[in-house]
Amino acid sequence: MKMPDPDQSILARREEIADRLRLIVPGEGVIISSQELQVYESDGLTAYRQPPLLAVLPENTQQVSEILKYCHTEGVKVVPRGSGTSLSGGALPLADAILLCMGKFNQILDVDYDNRCSVVQPGVTNLGITKAVEGDGFYYAPDPSSQIACSIGGNVAENAGGVHCLKYGLTTNNLLGIEMVLIDGTVLRFGGKHFDGAGYDLLGLMTGSEGLLGVVTEVTVRILPKPETARALLLGFSTSEEGGACVAAIISEGIIPGGMEMMDKPAIQAAEAFVNAGYPLDVDALLIVELDGPQAEVDYLIERVSDIAKKSGAVTSRISQNEEERQLFWAGRKAAFPAVGRLTPDYYCMDGTIPRNKLPLVLKRMREMSAHYGLGVANVFHAGDGNLHPLIMYDANNPGELEKAEDFGSDILRLCVEVGGVLTGEHGVGVEKRDLMPEMFTDVDLKQQLRVKCAFDAKALLNPGKVFPELHRCAELGRMHIHKGKLPFPDIPRF
């Protein structure tokens, strides 16, 4: 995995840059010692590490604006960082870039129940939004497994989802507005408390842009009333293929559960040992299906889903009898990632999305890949929307195993694209999937995306080395190809 070569002239100016940034962020807002910078040398994708040039921790939008304006003028690269929970290397530092850490932006600015929205700073945790409003019967719907730690700004950058995204949508479906700062220091606002706006969907463009277009300094999100009733089913199957077929059958019946998650045997056993959620250990696949809404509707749908599961081959079925038991069902699923960490020295968490009806095929192919590479894999995924999270188990202390895990992961992502899916569902591209982008996009597609990048950041200073497999200069993208001295389409007027 190659990153852009460090700019030696910037490295030589490290102390000068730090002194200038201290004028913008006084006190302890600039971190430069190598020992303190070790905290920031990676994000959640810990296989790749690189200390930044320095880290700066602004406290308000004005400071962010002045920092970016200075970096734009001086040609200094900037890597934005939220809580550092990214699993795609999106917040991986660069040796010649400052790390712009947004952790001090941690205040909830406004809760507006009349408009069912909340205005928060980007460093507020995902779960923190729900905690702030749950006393009044509201919550924030997207709920990644890392919701206790991940920041809402990072959720916007990666378009995070969660176990309830099937019914309630990803971050983009629950985002109403943002304040952001461009690389030249310009402060912009897109959207707001209103439901929708006219003109280009720049709010949608920013969601999932992975810190390449600007830095988010304020977020307005939709909050929802807590459903009257929520109940969950634990459904066990003898094979993952049967579990996948049950998922497709539920959706084809027109039922949209609040959440529908699936785990295979290694993940089930790891989660049960970790949480003691009461999962059956004699099945190869476990499906968690949650129905929410009015009491009568939930009771009716529970019976329908139970019947569908039985016809699909379910060998065990258990329905939550109270809120505590429902939460326990989900506790195992949300702890699946750390639980698998108890089984293996290292694991590589993948993220790809496929059409739901391809689940049985993809699970079968992944087992074949596991045998080919000699590495175990535990599968945990958002079954309802086809977002897979295979956990490839390896030992980095064994020579060559990290490389095998990377190759295994790349083959899984290629398979996702092959069956009609995409490279990422919610973790983003970052550096992890960067070199696989040509598997999904043509050269024309990628250059068009780069033109959008250039419109916001012509000097390519924001988060360089991420998303795009080859970083073109913006001027190169505007060049016209002339063959044998002849202009293309000579009849078109030119000005």
Q: How would you describe what is shown here?
A:
- This protein has about 500 residues and is of the alpha+beta class.
- It folds into 3 domains: about 10-100, Uridine Diphospho-n-acetylenolpyruvylglucosamine Reductase, domain 2 (2-Layer Sandwich); about 110-225, Uridine Diphospho-n-acetylenolpyruvylglucosamine Reductase, domain 3 (2-Layer Sandwich), CATH 3.30.465.10; about 230-420, Vanillyl-alcohol Oxidase, Chain A, domain 3 (3-Layer(aba) Sandwich).
- Helices cover about 35% and strands about 20% of the residues.
- It contains 18 helices and 19 strands.
- The strands form 4 sheets. Strands 12, 13, 14, 15, 16, 17, 18 and 19 form an 8-stranded antiparallel beta sheet that branches. A 5-stranded antiparallel beta sheet has the order 5-6-10-8-9. Strands 1-2-4-3 form a 4-stranded mixed beta sheet, with helices on one face.
- A hairpin with a 5-residue loop joins β8 (about 175-180) and β9.
- α9 crosses α11.
- The protein starts with 7 loop residues before the first helix and ends in an 18-residue tail after the last helix.
- Its cofactor is FAD.
- It comes from Kiloniella antarctica.
- Keywords: FAD, Flavoprotein, Oxidoreductase.
- InterPro entries: FAD-bd_oxidored_4_C, FAD-bd_PCMH, FAD-bd_PCMH-like_sf, FAD-bd_PCMH_sub2, FAD-linked_Oxase-like_C, FAD-linked_OxidoTrans_Type4, Oxid_FAD_bind_N, Vanillyl_alc_oxidase_C-sub2.
